[in-house]
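Predict the 3D structure for this chain.
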Amino acid sequence: MQDLSELRLELDRVDKQLAALFEERMQICEEVAEFKKANNRKVFDKEREEAKLNAVRELVDGELNKKGVAEIFTQLMSISRKLQYRKLSESMELRLPFIPVDELDMTAHVVYQGAEGSYSQAATETFFNRRDNISHVDTFRDAMQTLDEGTAAFAVLPIENSTAGIVNEIYDLLAEYEHFIVGEQMLEISHCLLGAKGADINDIRTVYAHPQALMQCEHFLRDKSWEQISMKNNAFAAKKVADEADKSQAAIAGAHAAAYYGLDILKSGINQEGNNTTRFIVVSNQKIFRRDAKMISLCFELPHRSGALYHILSHFIYNDLNMTKIESRPVEDRKWEYRFFLDFEGNLSDPSVRNALCGLREETKNLRVLGNY
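Done. Predicted structure below.
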């Protein structure tokens, strides 16, 4: 029996041959890319790749080796495709009709969902740095509809919270409407206990808030004997307390709502999670992106087969792109099928981004760029 050092030398010899063969294979793939470019052929040929995998399985013995050689060639073909996408993207324009702009129109009409005094209003005023030409609507769908109708240029919508997670409805609406993310605003959520003018915390008997706010302030409320009543929006709760001017009533909302409705802040920072932040997106019906944009959002669907998502994510690794988030949502009317939403760092003008999108366009279903912001 050979000792370990001798066996390792044998492995090194074989690996050297494999590396040389790999280089030779990639050189041939470059020629394949040139042929496909000249003849307007697609890079991804699913039937050809499946036939290749079946053929290489027959070249080896044993179930483990058959699985292993199929895995190796799956990776080889994936790398070959990425080389071809890169070669093709160097000489062809990827059709992404997004228009780069230096700045957004910060004076245009903006809508947000919810009542005046809400966190959404605060996020809107913070992003646009103004209070004029801003209005509110009742629902998230209403906000999207105003963009459809052209009665607003932008809508500001909450898409996720650092403690409560994503807002499912926003993801579904992004897939449904042909609107695009052009900006984002992070807003720290610091809940306050608000009372009518002159109220004292000892006067309180009833507290109103959105169910999520009640949950986020559970530690503060736990030793209180107050009746807790859910409202559809914290700002609506603040408005109710202001309108009724009953010192036994309180609302949980932000300091922004206290200022808007003329309420007293009885106690600040009552949510138990100190690092509570909501991410808002700014949506437009225009296919535009700022030249200095740094984040891209996509959505796409995949065939329901093993390894499909794994191979798609490899496009980001190959092009040195940092993926920051991935979510999935059920596809309406298609049982057990899912749509993926993905965020990654980059700009649509970057060659690495265009290379990745070239591959994603061929290997996913219904790929959409949701925005660059």
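DSSP finds twelve helices and 17 strands in the chain.
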